[in-house]
């Protein structure tokens, strides 16, 4: 399948400040157009594809397929953060993630690599192996050392909202106004990161669909997604195969691909610019149609 990326990342990319996401390794992404992060789960227990790519060779082959389908970013994860998931020891996460990042960096030098981790040790090792982005579900709250790592190395950073740790976050989540509460969270954490030494142009914001949210919370976030544009940073969205599609459409995990693609296209119209997807090819079709109709 041909590479459908319209604007591959470069070291000298320009764009409006609100659209530009500066990454590690001298890279940047212009997020004025939709970007896709393909999911490479190197775990036995992820909710959607756990175990399918749990060894290095299978994960690298999967990453190659996602890149060929048009992924701008490959997001490698070695610990499931689904609701109720138990933590993984650092040594196990390193053994899963670092060889995959190193192999992908060698095999696909034109693709940006991201690592989905909240651990300082894993983030530092992944950056050394070739990652340019740290995708952190914890907002630097689970491992205090992570803040030091991202401020020292200055990778691209995904600032995500979660209401507690995966093992507890779905226990009766409550909000006053879910969108305004998350917006206040982002404002506080962006200020914290900036004070600590990570420039705002390294950060994108992810409202954390499914992380400490009931179905009604998730739908309200998606309806009012454009509210987060006031922050002046690109919006990163992890919708792929999430439980919200089970709740509102009664779809089992294996049958949520079409709903994910449609929702991603709709959310593009509401300001989402980086879409974290399992099925990159299907997502690219939906996003391309949305862009054509919006032109």
From TrEMBL:
The keyword Transferase applies. The keyword Metal-binding applies. This is Dihydropteroate synthase. GO terms for biological process: folic acid biosynthetic process; tetrahydrofolate biosynthetic process. Keywords: Folate biosynthesis, Magnesium, Metal-binding, Transferase. Its cofactor is Mg(2+). NCBIfam families: DHPS.
């Amino acid at each position: 399948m041909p590479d459908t990326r319209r604007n591959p990342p470069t070291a000298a990319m320009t764009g409006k400040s609100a659209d530009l996401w500066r990454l590690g390794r001298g890279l940047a992404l212009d997020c004025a157009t939709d970007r896709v992060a393909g999911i490479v789960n190197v775990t036995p227990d992820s909710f959607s594809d756990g175990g399918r790519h749990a060894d290095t060779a299978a994960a690298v082959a999967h990453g190659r397929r996602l890149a060929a389908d048009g992924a701008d970013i490959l997001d490698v994860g070695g610990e499931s953060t689904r609701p109720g998931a138990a933590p993984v020891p650092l040594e196990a996460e390193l053994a899963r993630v670092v060889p995959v990042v190193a192999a992908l960096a060698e095999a696909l030098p034109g693709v940006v690599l991201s690592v989905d981790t909240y651990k300082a040790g894993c983030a530092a090792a992944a950056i050394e192996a070739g990652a340019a982005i740290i995708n952190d579900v914890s907002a630097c709250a689970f491992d205090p050392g992570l803040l030091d790592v991202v401020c020292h190395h200055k990778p691209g950073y995904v600032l995500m909202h979660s209401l507690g740790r995966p093992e507890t976050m779905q226990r009766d989540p409550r909000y006053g106004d879910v969108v305004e509460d998350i917006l206040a969270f982002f404002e506080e954490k962006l200020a914290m990161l900036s004070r600590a030494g990570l420039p705002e142009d390294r950060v994108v914001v992810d409202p954390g669909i499914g992380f400490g949210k009931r179905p009604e919370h998730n739908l309200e976030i998606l309806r009012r997604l454009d509210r987060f544009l006031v922050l002046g940073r690109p919006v990163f969205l992890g919708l792929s195969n999430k439980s919200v599609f089970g709740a509102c459409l009664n779809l089992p995990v294996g049958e949520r691909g079409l709903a994910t693609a449609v929702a991603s296209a709709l959310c593009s119209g509401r300001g989402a610019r980086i879409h974290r997807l399992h099925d990159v090819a299907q997502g690219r079709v939906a996003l391309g149609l949305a862009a054509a109709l919006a032109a």
